[in-house]
Amino acid sequence: MKRFAIILAGAAAAGTFAASAGEMTAFGDIDTDASGTISQEEFVTWKTADGDVTEAEATEKFAMVDADYDGEVTEAEYEEAKEDWAEEKDASDDMTDDSEMGVDTDY
Ligand SMILES: [Ca+2]
Ligand SMILES: [Ca+2]
């Protein structure tokens, strides 16, 4: 019985790992100083971490996420942006690179 539980735990951990690869980063992981809001610096650091988003692009995205332009992204603003990104992702299934998310060229 104990052995069965260990196997289950292992499977759950593997499943979590696989699922997390395609999911959005948690708000708390971006808010590195735990201030409760994401500053532009924190956002740019997160966005540019994987190397395929430039600082200029990340700054532009920050401005889109910061809906009330006060220079800080609240959790509510981030959740709102995530929903928009998820919708765009659904609309373009073959674009798995999240660096393209949030870019709307049809202004
Ligand atoms: Ca912060
Ligand atoms: Ca804001």
Chart the SSEs and their pairings.
Blueprint: H1 2-20, H2 27-30, E1 38-39, H3 40-48, H4 55-65, E2 72-73, H5 75-91
Antiparallel strand pairs: 1-2
Helix pairs in contact: 3-4
This protein binds calcium ion (CA) (2 copies).
The site of one calcium ion has 7 residues, from strand 2.
Explain how this protein is built.
The chain has about 110 residues and is mainly α. It has a domain at about 25-95: EF-hand (Recoverin, domain 1, Orthogonal Bundle), CATH 1.10.238. The chain is built from 5 helices and 2 strands, in the order ααβααβα. Strands 1-2 form a two-stranded antiparallel ribbon. One calcium ion binds next to strand 1. One calcium ion binds near residues 33, 35, 37 and 39.
